[in-house]
Amino acid sequence: MKKPLIAGNWKMFKTVDEAVTLVQTIKAGVYKVTDCDVVICPPFTALAAVSKILADGPIALGAQNIYPATEGAFTGEISPIMIKNVGCRYVILGHPERRQYFHETDDFINEKVKIALKYSLIPIVCIGETLAQRDNRQFLEVVKGQFDQSFADLTKEDILRLVIAYEPVWAIGTGKTATPEQAEQMHSYIRRLLNEKYGGEVASRVLILYGGSVKPDNIGLLIRKPNVDGALVGGASLKAESFSQLVVLAAEQSKVEARK
After folding, report:
1. pLDDT value of residue 1
2. Is pLDDT above 70 for 174?
3. What whole-number distance in Å separates Cα of residue 65 and Cα of residue 101?
4. Is 145 helix (H, G, I), strand (E, B) or coil?
5. Which residue segment(s) compose the domain that 209 sits in?
6. What is the dihedral of CA 138, 139, 141, 145, to 10 degrees?
7. Which residues are marked as active site?
């Protein structure tokens, strides 16, 4: 069984001092956990300071975005080289908030995925439908379209170097969460898309995370599902106690599932 991955997306929260305090507390809360991989994605301003704290431990550092160029006249943007230079191993791409507020397209996300892989970063690529698309029974079609375009021209080797996050837009920051059954349905569908395009061995190895109002009280039920390999956590990652508890519970549930 794959080791679960829990990634915390801090979004536009925490000053540098606040980030340092939070990550120190999280580090102390999860240092004994060996059955779960952990990634923390602070805002750009805090990456360097957080990187120093995480340098001697198992928690990985991630960024929340990149621009698909190594350098240039792109005011306000961050390159993959820049985030690698401060110690990032992961980068979140295609988050629904980037799609919604900054009008990022699947083709643009595909460019970002390719340049992240070029510089040996691990992309956490988000796909997911809106509430209207779900209500109109278009969610499978929408997710397939995002899958096909965001991963266009990627090889088997490329796909094995990235993580997919199913993020239903209607569950992000709303307090609504897809039921474990809804999450499993979509994760199973994404796994099927991987199988059809890249084969069963590749499909079985790619991590698929669930994102959208993940909390300590629902992580166990989500991890219990066979195609849910972890979580991309928003609000609950901003409090050390809830995020640490979430990591511990994910690791415990994973061990239970492995014994079955």
Report:
1. 66
2. yes
3. 14
4. helix
5. 5-259
6. 130
7. 95, 167
